[in-house]
Amino acid sequence: MKRISLFVAALALASLMGCTDFGKVDQGRVVAFDKQAGKVTFIRDKKAEPLNPDYSGLPPVTYTIPADPAEMGPAPKAGLRMKLDTQKSQIVIYDPQTQAFKTIVFKIHDMQENVDRDHPLVFDKESGKAKVFPMVDKTKKTVTVYSARQKMLVTFSVPEEYMAWPDSTWDAGDEVRVYYKEDGKSLRFMNITKTDIFKK
Question: Domains in the chain, ordered, with CATH?
Fold first, then answer.
């Protein structure tokens, strides 16, 4: 947390001083992470507002992770879920094949609201670990997802053709931020989700 605070403070100071060669910052939700190749791909957040993100920046962008391990935060988790809208009964996912967004209408079977991260529905106090989501039930043909940002646990069903898609389709990738000077090459990488500044 201290490193992130110093990083943000340095960026703000550089901005106030009108420093043009300091570098740039980019951030978004991860849709792919190749650890061996050292590359992360994400969809840009157009708003960068913690409680009201807008993951709609296409095309996705790819960055190499920092060469210096000290500048690399926790490895990111990839997922394709961009938005969960229970009022419209819609989930927006990123389709890697078409490199476009797809809006899927679902049927809600159960919805629990005001579910904090330490709630028994999503956290096993005995083991001290969070439960793993999404939960995909091939037999019942349902998907259960948890959104910490929305404090919502939802079980829904989708059209048959989507049940064959990988579980990561329904998962929200980590929110990350990169600092760079050269396009596509990050000098500092921060996993915002895992440092709990933003909630997915």
Answer: 2-78+174-191 (2.40.50.320), 81-170 (no CATH)
